[in-house]
């Protein structure tokens, strides 16, 4: 079973970002880029790949992540990796940036120093060079702040729709000052 851990943005955050990608109802993600379906937009904390004992992995992640401080984040800005258009994710302040990095470190699959939180919006063959008008549309984009209540351990299956399904949900602790 292929697994990864992620934060899933709330529906209104996804709708707002989707609207920013369609100014005037015309999509700004050009061919040959393939948009990632909005229902699949997430912030990956760690990719675990093919896991032979998913229950053991989930138990370890529950122990490492359960009750950790939830960061307050928003989707803001954009960039590209080879073959990928992404929207950035930033914390509301240094404590939130640290809390997000702590989640990545607790997952243990990424070097927090090299980790760039993002939401993948579109993919294309690495050889292609699409006109990235979406970068212009998203450079100054900043969505609303949100605080995830949980980390999802997600099953990924490219042969099924929806492609992703929650395998395990791990509750996060509240941010400081929350009731």
UniProtKB/TrEMBL annotation:
<dbReference type="InterPro" id="IPR004175">
    <property type="entry name" value="RNA_CPDase"/>
</dbReference>
<feature type="short sequence motif" description="HXTX 2">
    <location>
        <begin position="118"/>
        <end position="121"/>
    </location>
</feature>
<feature type="active site" description="Proton donor">
    <location>
        <position position="42"/>
    </location>
</feature>
<protein>
    <recommendedName>
        <fullName>RNA 2',3'-cyclic phosphodiesterase</fullName>
        <ecNumber>3.1.4.58</ecNumber>
    </recommendedName>
</protein>
<feature type="active site" description="Proton acceptor">
    <location>
        <position position="118"/>
    </location>
</feature>
<keyword id="KW-0436">Ligase</keyword>
<comment type="function">
    <text>Hydrolyzes RNA 2',3'-cyclic phosphodiester to an RNA 2'-phosphomonoester.</text>
</comment>
<dbReference type="Pfam" id="PF13563">
    <property type="entry name" value="2_5_RNA_ligase2"/>
</dbReference>
<comment type="similarity">
    <text>Belongs to the 2H phosphoesterase superfamily. ThpR family.</text>
</comment>
<feature type="short sequence motif" description="HXTX 1">
    <location>
        <begin position="42"/>
        <end position="45"/>
    </location>
</feature>
<dbReference type="GO" id="GO:0016874">
    <property type="term" value="F:ligase activity"/>
</dbReference>
<keyword id="KW-0378">Hydrolase</keyword>
<dbReference type="InterPro" id="IPR009097">
    <property type="entry name" value="Cyclic_Pdiesterase"/>
</dbReference>
